[in-house]
Amino acid sequence: MANINDDLKRNSKDDILQLVSFNIGEEEFGVDILKVQEIIRLVEITKVPNAPSFVEGVINLRGKVIPVIDLRKRMGLPSIASNIETRIIVVEIENKIVGFLVDCVNEVLRISRNITEPPPEVISGINSDYITAIGKLEDRILILLDLEKILSTSEKMIVSDIAVNN
Is residue 143 part of a domain? Predict the structure, then answer.
């Protein structure tokens, strides 16, 4: 009987997603909170010559050089000027620390997995390879991203080289 109770507890725990929600333009996105190391205010970003257009540059975070990727540019959206709400979400991707530039960070959400569904093939022109699900909240839609898939293998190598060479 204890095994069934343990399974029930585990299943109910697994059914809750803990997400960091953020905006890029009018769209709200979410990423698994366990992937996020920290969220920082925008700091000076040093440009890197010959970097892909979506790589904003690098920052010095407590002595580590971290590449910063502009999620707007990576998703093919127009650039905007950064402002007081602009944030960098710092994550680890394949043992490399990377920052993702977003318009603003909203909140930490706990949502039930049963209010999510697989993404449609194309969402607002954004390639859905890195979109894991769509969350249907009471008054809004939340697009769940897998930041590990936001870059291709070759792009991950380029970003990794940028961090190593600077």
Answer: yes
Q: Among positive and negative, which fits the CA dihedral 101, 106, 107, 108?
A: negative
Look at 112 and 120; give whichever has higher pLDDT.
Answer: 112
Residue ranges making up the domain that contains 124: 15-165
Kindly state whether residue 59 falls inside one of the protein's structural domains.
Answer: yes
Chain position carrying tokens 């209010």 = 115
Kindly report the CATH number assigned to the domain that includes residue 104.
2.40.50.180
| Rounded Cα distance, 99 and 38, in Å | 9
Model pTM score? 0.84
Dihedral sign for Cα 33, 35, 37, 40, please. negative
